Structure to design on (267 residues):
């Protein structure tokens, strides 16, 4: 999706990368605000949302290749980057490629939010650990339904958050689109890649010369807030905004605060 600016174009295009197990619809409450004065580029990565769901191995390289092709098709050579959850890892691979000269775009500034960028600090849920214990293969029919997805997503929100149940239902419906939930043991393998290649992904996140803003939900039960503090210590010139009473999905739990923090980082 390529959203044109609603007003005069003042900023470089913004590329938005979503997380696991959801899709770019996570940003639907803030995307119009983000597109006030810049193009916004969003996509559902392979295996997520409305994108194709082939029964294949899902790798970070695959997702990064898809993002590169998407940006090229959009004709964009200069961009800002907003990433969340698994999108942080895909973003890390893209930043590494950019540093190596393999992705020839100019990345001016970036905003990173709630993702397990230091995987050893992550508090994975029982459901995530179960999926990682399963074979890297498609699940049998009827194994997981939308209600189970909705419940697991709700558990990542802050106890202080009051999110419309319709938001959870919409997110779960998109996870289960074309039986995407049956591929969860395949798509979650990005966590194993992050463990193997953390030096590459997180190293690029820490060291890429573009301006960095960190926006984090303080009550995230998985990507705990101390990750944001650690990244800020690695990049002391970065801007850090911690959103109190917000969990893993700040763009859904606190859209105005999230938009304000992201906009400040992109200014």
């Amino acid at each position: 999706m390529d959203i044109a600016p609603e007003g005069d174009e003042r900023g470089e295009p913004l590329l938005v990368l979503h997380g696991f197990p959801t899709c770019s619809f996570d940003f639907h409450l803030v995307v119009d605000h983000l597109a006030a004065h810049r193009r916004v580029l969003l996509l559902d990565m392979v295996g997520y949302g409305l994108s194709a769901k082939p029964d294949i191995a899902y790798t970070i390289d695959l997702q990064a290749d898809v993002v590169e092709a998407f940006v090229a098709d959009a004709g964009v050579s200069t961009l800002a980057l907003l990433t969340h959850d698994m999108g942080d890892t895909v973003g890390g691979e893209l930043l590494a490629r950019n540093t190596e000269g393999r992705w020839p775009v100019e990345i001016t500034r970036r905003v990173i939010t709630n993702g397990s960028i230091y995987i050893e600090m992550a508090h994975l849920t029982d459901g995530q650990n179960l999926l990682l214990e399963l074979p890297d293969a498609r699940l049998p029919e009827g194994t997981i339904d939308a209600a189970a997805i909705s419940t697991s997503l709700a558990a990542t929100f802050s106890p202080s958050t009051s999110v419309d149940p319709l938001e959870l239902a919409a997110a779960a419906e998109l996870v289960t689109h074309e039986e995407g939930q049956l591929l969860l043991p395949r798509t979650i393998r990005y966590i194993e890649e992050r463990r193997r290649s953390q030096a590459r992904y997180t190293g690029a996140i820490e060291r890429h010369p573009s301006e960095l803003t960190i926006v984090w939900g303080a009550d995230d039960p998985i990507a705990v807030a101390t990750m944001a503090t650690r990244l800020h210590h690695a990049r002391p010139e970065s801007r850090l905004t911690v959103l109190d009473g917000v969990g893993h999905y700040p763009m859904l739990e606190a859209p105005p605060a999230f938009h304000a923090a992201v906009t400040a980082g992109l200014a």
